[in-house]
Amino acid sequence: MARVRKKRPQKAKDDSLFGLLTSALRSEKDGGQGPPWLNVVWPIAAGIAVLGTMLASFTSIEPGQVAVRVNNMTGGHTVVTQPGWIYQMPFGVHSVYVLDASPQNFTMSGRDNLDDLHVRALTVRASDGSNFHFQDTTLIFQLKGDEAETVIRDSGLDMAYLSWMRPYTRAVLRDEFGRESTISVSNPAKFGEATQQAKERLNEYLGRHGLQVSQIVTPRPQFSDEYEKLVEQRNSLGNELKVIESNLAAAETTRERKLAEVNRDQNLAIQTKRTELESALAQATAEQSNSMRQVDTYKIETVGKGQAARAAAERKAAELKGQLDAEYRSRKAEIDAFRTQPVERVMERLGERLKGVTIDIQPWSDDSTPSRVRMSQIAGAK
User: Fold this and answer.
1) What's residue 369's pLDDT?
2) Number of alpha carbons in the 13 Å side-chain half-sphere of residue 376
């Protein structure tokens, strides 16, 4: 009786690329000839493998990111800050670590810590013992791109560097704002100085780990309700003081303007009066000069006339003197001659002189023995 060989059940045909490749390899192993399409599939598979290896050897760096490429064979590293593609050798020769270097906000608000970038609000104890807090404090920071290797070495991979923000920020802000009193911290100028100092100290500490704070945004500090009212009253009084100072400045400006106007008017009046006086002085000087010329002319003329009259008078005086001398000598001669005349002749001459003169003689005696006869001319006697 012939033995009947049972046929093995045929497996389901696998149409996938892996199945086709497996069938081709099995057929080749059995010594059979492979299918004709195997010469086409092998180059395609090799190309896909090479392309996948190449794609796995490049890492994309987006804007706002930095990368550190570490050579695991030599231990060297390279920091890449420019966006683009960075090459890494496969099979663990290179390792590439990408970090976020874009500006980020570290917010301190609320009562609970939500994550590394959102923590509870900042509370500060002032130098005078009082407490104040900030409703919402925001720090804008970012990773220093050229120090990405320091960030990874000190902090770790990915966003591990955020662990430095919470302790340093809270400690430094409490320290700097705690130096101020409640009065000084409510002063915007003092508060701004404290904020700037806090920023400098944070950059000093965080800079050692490759981080940098670019800005600290803090609202007005909040106090107790009673103190808030006092602060509002102080601000109101400060505003009134500024208004008063502004009014004083305006009054000072008005005063200076009015003084300038008065000085201008007075200077104009003085200049006008000075011009008038100078004109009058010039006119008086001209008149004086004219008067001096007239006086000099009059003096010259008068002196000339006087000198001429004096010369004429002197001449006439000399003539009169001569005449008087002649008359004197003539009279003297007559007198001398008259002295020698007899009494009769004298009486005759006296009669000639008294010719036409009526003499009223009244007897009167005031002396019992008259020794002389007094004669007085009676009114009407000639």
Assistant:
1) 60
2) 5
Nearest to 202 by CA among 246, 109, 137: 137
- CATH topology assigned to domain 103-223: Tetrahydropterin Synthase; Chain A (3.30.479)
Report the pLDDT value the prediction gives residue 92, as an integer from 0 to 100.
60
**What's the rounded Cα separation, in Å, for the pair 201 and 176?**
9
Provide DSSP, 22-88.
Answer: HHHHHHHHTTPPPPTTHHHHHHHHHHHHHHHHHHHTEEEE-TTEEEEEEETTT--EEEE-SSEEEE-
Q: Is the pTM of this model over 0.90?
A: no
pLDDT of residue 301: 85
Distances 110 to 77, 104, 165, 171 between C-alpha atoms, Å: 41, 19, 17, 18
Contact 132, 182 (CB under 8 A): yes
* pLDDT for 232: 75
List of the chain residues with pLDDT < 70: 1-58, 60, 72, 75, 84, 87-94, 224-225, 228, 231, 341, 359-382
What are the start-end ranges of the H helices in 66-218? 148-154, 165-178, 182-185, 188-206
Q: How far is CA 63 from the centre of its chain?
A: 43
Q: Where are the domains of the chain?
A: 15-56, 103-223
Distances (CA, A) of 11 to 7, 8, 16: 12, 9, 14
CB atoms near residue 80 (< 10 Å): 19
How far, in Å, CA of 45 to CA of 51, rounded?
10
Our separate counts of H helices and E strands in the chain read 8, 11
